Amino acid sequence: MAYKHNSREALGYGLIGEAKNHPFEPAIKALSMETPQNHKIARRPIWIVGGLIVIGLIGWYVWEHLFDISYRPIKVTGTIQAKEILVASKVGGRIAAVLAEEGQTVSKGQRLVEFEVPELEARRMQYLAHIKESEAYLAELKAGPRYSEIEKARAEANQAQANWEMLKRGYRQEEIEKARAQRIEAQEQLNLLERGYRAEEIATARDAMEQAKIQMDWAEHEFKRYSGLASQGAVSSREADELKIKGDAAREAYEMAVESYRKMQSGPRKEEIDAARQRLKAATEQEKMLTRGMRPEEIKMAQQKYRAARASLRLLEEGTRKEQIARAEAKLAQMQASLQELDAQLKDRFVYSPADAEVSVMDLHAGQVIAPNKSIATLTRLDDMWTRVYLPERELGRVHVGQMVAVRADAFPTREFVGKIVQIPGVAEFTPRNVQTAEERSAQVFGLKIKIDNKDKLLRGGMNAEVTLPPVEGPFFKLARKENAPRHSP
Q1: Is-above-0.70 flag for pTM?
Q2: Distance between alpha carbon 13 and the CA centroid of its chain, in Å?
Q3: Closest Cα to residue 220, out of 252, 256, 179?
Q4: Which of 181, 215, 229, 399 could make a disulfide contact with 235, Cβ separation 3.0–4.6 Å?
Q5: For residues 375 and 389, what is the distance between their CA atoms, to the nearest angstrom?
Q6: Residue 450 near residue 422 (C-beta atoms within 8 A)
Q7: Long-range pairs for 203-212 at CB < 8 Å and ≥24 separation?
Q8: Rounded Cα distance, 113 and 116, in Å
C-alpha cells in the first residue's frame, strides 16, 4: 500500500501540479485515480514513468510555441474611415457662383462658393472716399496755411476794420450827394418809361432804319458787282471780300435799327417799367440810409465781423496746432480700420477649402439663398484615413502607440499599406455587437485607432481593412537582445 501511495503521489500530485493547463492533463489525472489498472501500472518498470515525463515536456513545448498566439502575428479586421469636413459660410446670402462640384479634388485655400454682397461693395466705395478725404485734410494740416491764404485773411481783416471805422464816423457829404444823383436818374428813367416814347423819337428811329436800309442795299450791290469783276480778273478777290464784310456789318446795323423802331412803336414793356421802379426804390433807400447814418446795432455787427476776421488771421499766422493733427490722424486710422474690417467681411463672401480634400456632397446652384453658418458642402480627406480594430485585453501587451502595422484592403488584395497605431484607449470596453460568438462578446477589448498611409489616394471610406499585428518576442529572444542584457553597477 505504501508503494501504491507513493506511485499515486508521484504520478498524481506531482505531475498534475506541473501539468496544469497541459494537453495531457486528463491522462495524468486518469493515472492518479484509485483503480485496479493503476495498481498494474504501478508494478511496471520505472521507465514508463520517465517516458510519460518526456511526453509531457514535449507537449508543453508544442503548446507554448504552436498554440500560444502571442508568439505569432494575429490579424484583426475593421472598417476604413475617412475624415470628413463640414464647410459652412459665415455670411450667407444669395449664391453668385458655384466654383466646385461633387467628386472634384480641391486644394487648401481653393474657392468653393461665392456669395453676392452688393451692399458691402457699396460701403467699401464710401470708406475709400472718406479715407481719401481724410488723407487730404491731414496733409493740409501738416503743410500749414499757404502764404496766399494768410494774405487773403489779412486783406479781409483790413476791409472789416475799414468798414467798422467808416460806420463809426458816418458817411461823407460827397457819398450822400452821389446817392441823391442816382435816385434822381432812376426817377427820370421811370418817368420816361411810364410816359412812353415821343413822336419825334419814333420819327428819328424810323429815319435811322431807312438810312440803314439804304446803306445795306448799296453794300450788297457793290459786293455783287465786285464779285463779278473778280471772277473775270478785273479786280482782286481781296476787294470783293472787304465789300462782303462791309455788307454784313450794314445788315446787322439795319436789323438793330428795325428792332429799335419796332420797340418805340410798341412802347415800353411792363417788365421794363417794373425793373425801373425797383431801381428807384433801391436808390431811394440808399439815399435815406446815408442821410440818417448807421444804427448802433449795425456798427456793433461790423465790429464783430472785424474781430472774427482778425482772429482767423491770427490762427493762420500761428499755424496748425498739434492737437488738430492728432485728431485728424486718429480719424484717418479709424476709417482705415473700418475698411480692413469690411475687407474681412468681403473675403468671407468666398467659401474656401480648409484642406486638400475631395468634394463628397455639394448640392448648390447660383441664385440659391443660404443661411449664415449653414453647412454647404462635405469634404473628404483621402490623406487622413484610419480604422479602428478591437484587440482582446490579453493581447494588449504586444502593441504600443507609434507602432507600425501592415494593412490590407479587400479592394487591393495584393497590396500592403502601412499603418501606425495612434491611439490606445485608457479604458477597456466590451466587444462590439458585430462579433459573432458569445464567448468573444463577453470579453473586454481595447479599440485601437490606426492611421493608414494613403498617399496614392487608393483607399476609400467604408472599405474593409485587415490589420496584421506583429508577434511578441519570446523570453529567450528578449534575453538575447543586447539592450536587455543585465547591467552591473560599478
Answers
A1: no
A2: 85
A3: 252
A4: 229
A5: 31
A6: yes
A7: 205/257, 205/260, 205/261, 205/264, 206/261, 208/257, 208/260, 208/261, 209/254, 209/257, 209/258, 209/260, 209/261, 211/257, 212/250, 212/253, 212/254, 212/256, 212/257, 212/258
A8: 10
Q: Are 290 and 167 in contact (CB under 8 A)?
A: no
Q: State the Cα–Cα distance between residues 471 and 71, nearest whole angstrom.
A: 5
What is the grid cell recorded at 376?
A: 454647404
Q: Which of 189, 209, 202 is nearest to 266 (CA)?
A: 202
> What type of residue sits at position 137?
Y
Taking only the tens place, the pLDDT of each residue in 257-304 is 888 888 777 777 778 788 888 888 888 887 777 776 666 777 788 888
> In this structure, what C-alpha cell is assigned to residue 404?
507600425
Residue 452's contacts (CB-CB under 8 Å, 6 or more residues apart) are: 80, 385, 386, 387, 407, 417, 418, 419, 459, 465
C-beta of residue 173 within 8 angstroms of C-beta of residue 325: no
Q: Parallel, antiparallel, or unpaired: how do β-strands 464-469 and 429-430 relate?
A: unpaired
340-391 pLDDT per residue, tens: 888 887 888 888 888 888 888 888 888 888 888 888 888 888 888 899 998 8
Residue 174: CB atoms within 10 A of its CB come to 8
Closest among 100, 110, 81 to 376, alpha carbons compared: 100
**Angstrom distance (rounded) from CA 165 to CA 431:** 109
Cell of 84: 470628413
The beta strand positions in 89-217, using DSSP E, are 93-98, 105-106, 111-115
Length of the chain: 490
Q: Residue 389 in contact with residue 405, Cβ under 8 Å?
A: no
